[in-house]
Amino acid sequence: MTPNKLIPLAEAVRRYTWDGMQYASGAALPIGSDAIVFGRELLRQGRRDLHAIFHSSSQQLNLLAGAGAAVKAECGFSALEVFGFANGLRRAVESGGMALEDYSNLAMVLRYLGGALNWPFVPATTNIGSDIQYRSAFAPDQHPARDKIPAVTDPFSGREIGAYRPLTPDLAAIHVTLADMTGNSIMLGTEWSRFELSRAAKKVVVVADAIVDSGCIRQFPNLVRIPDLIVEAVVYWPFAAWPQGSPGLYDVDEEHMNLMNQALATQAGTDRYVADFVTGYDGLDSYLDMIGGARLAELARTETAFLLDPYRQWILSPDHVERLSAKAEAA
Amino acid sequence: MSALDYTRQEMMAIATGREIRDGELAIFGVGLSMLAGYFAQAHHAPNVRAMTEGGVYGATPVGGLPWGIECNRLSVNATSFTNALDALGFLVGSGRCDVGIIGAAQVDKFGNVNTTGIWDGEIGEAYRPPKTRLPGAGGANDIACGAKRTVIMVTHEPKRFAEKVTYISSPGYLEGGNARERYGFPGGGPAAIITTLGILRPDAETKEFRLESWFSFSSIEEIKANTGWPLKVAPGAHVVPEPTEPELAALRRVDQTGALRRKA
Description:
The complex is a heterodimer. By secondary structure, chain A is of the alpha/beta class. Chain A folds into two domains: about 20-100 and about 170-330, Glutaconate Coenzyme A-transferase; about 120-165. In chain A, about 35% of the residues lie in helices and about 20% in strands. Chain A has helices spanning about 10-15, 35-45, 60-65, 85-95, 105-115, 130-135, 195-200, 215-220, 255-265, 265-275, 285-290, 295-300, 320-330; strands at about 20-25, 50-55, 70-75, 100, 120-125, 150-155, 160-165, 170-180, 185, 205-210, 225, 235. In chain A, the strands form two sheets. In chain A, strands 1, 2, 3, 4, 8, 9, 10, 11 and 12 form a nine-stranded mixed β-sheet that branches. In chain A, strands 5-7-6 form a three-stranded antiparallel β-sheet. In chain A, α2 runs parallel beside α3 (about 60-65), α3 (about 60-65) crosses α4 (about 85-95) and α5 packs parallel to α7 (about 195-200). The longest helix of chain A has 13 residues, at about 105-115. The radius of gyration of chain A is 20 Å and the shape is globular. The mean pLDDT of chain A is about 95. Chain B is an alpha/beta fold. Chain B contains seven helices and 15 strands. Chain B has an eight-stranded mixed β-sheet, with helices on both faces. Chain B has a three-stranded mixed β-sheet with strand order 7-6-11, with no helix packed on it. In chain B, strands 3-4 form a two-stranded antiparallel ribbon. In chain B, β12 and β13 form a beta hairpin. The radius of gyration of chain B is 18 Å and the shape is globular. The model of chain B has no long low-confidence stretch (mean pLDDT about 95). The interface between A and B is large, with 73 and 62 residues.
């Protein structure tokens, strides 16, 4: 029998996360598909001292950093693109509350690749010669840093290059557009580094905007870049990336992106934001109510909606998913 | 001034777009550099093979400046979605990309770029957090190492033009001369720094950036006054041709939401 891995979000966080862990998410660029609800739930359950691995920061890391839950982070890019600096992250870094180790965007995916392949190191032909190599927030007293991107010799050319340390995070919470109940997942839009991260992480939880019948997976197996055999659990959560966007399903919520980032600029604002938008809902229905029906409908009127057309016939209704989830819990 | 009314930001974008040649494999960052790049495509480089590091290919932005390189304003008409390893690794880090446009918070006389942070003075021996944290390198370091040439776009202010950047996020010519050669980068380094006042290009030997041309609303004196090192003027320095009507029209079609039209 096909295993049913659907579990509630709160249960996924209880089961697969702990204080001080290396937690990876945000693998789809700063304002795109990211499992932001997973970060909200980490805060709801009071997780702390996290070592965050985010290829690019997103509103999730902005929130975790702003709320003081992450004490270390490794990133290639740590702002919100056209929405500007990530104020919560910025406050945490500038105050010394979170040590942020800088890499480039290519470096981060290569480090996932190295972790996925169990390589001892990955040759670095970029990031060398710049302060990304010479300065380390994790070993601030070393200058030049010795353990971050140490120099190694290319055995073929004799040239000095660098070595990236591979990443194997304890858990990756990965946002996907569609998943079946066993964890086979389809991502619409750029996958950025979700493919490599899914192989580098010790465990993977997928957070899906929609659940599909497995017929969909068998129709498009080439598009299933995250297969069930590496997935521990599936969380069904529509608008999981809100206020960021999910191609085919919903646009970026410009107003809330700004509201959230402005709130995270101060401790008082962060406390208010957490009260209103993190602990201020209880379960999926009340999360959707919190965003508001009119707003949800507006965000769902995305010009990219046609991207979802080939898959629509297999999308399961919320009631159907609820019945499947109940079955999984009973099992 | 000509009869055309345009902003300094628009002139900077047009001058940057003029660096892009038809048919090139080109990579653009989010924001202004994307507008400059897609302006080139709309005006004189219809066959430019434009991409962003997001791995979203074949797309032309709709509805104005995209919020990000993964955003629905680009995803809406893409012909291929891939990933970071493909865009930044296979197509840029490999040395295949012809030209990249990157931004800077701070740039120095050898074209080194800081987008990581602002410190009060030097960082010192031990690393310490910046007074103001900036976005970090993103893909710009990989573009600066891998693209055959880069164009740096930056607002011309004294605080942004330093003798030496506090933190090298993305390498230009490092300490100048042939310093880049130590690292075997496939890319050749920055071909130009294009600002809100004019254009700087590197000396062929020393790699020190010199003033090559200024915009018609600017002057050698104004540019020198806004540069944090004793800026040399290249022989034959001249004024940059103003935007033509077709150029401005093409830019404004791309910059539908008017990001560049707000006067600073």
